[in-house]
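Can't paste images in this forum, so I'm doing it all in text. The chain is below; anyone willing to post the predicted structure tokens underneath?
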Amino acid sequence: MAYASHRSPLRPPRPDLTLARDCEQCLGWGTVVTRDGTHELCHVCQPDPTDTEGPAASGS
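Text version of the structure:
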């Protein structure tokens, strides 16, 4: 028996694939699937929309 994913009224986030290209966390997709089955931006390679400094600043 095949199982399909549930339809969500929310659209999946749109990652920047250039930033995600070499990411080991999301394997280049730019998004990760949570335990709830929803997609969210990868916290390793994608910048937080509320963070003005971007992902490179987190390592400083």
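The beta strands are 31-33, 39-41. Residues 17-20 form the longest helix (4 residues).
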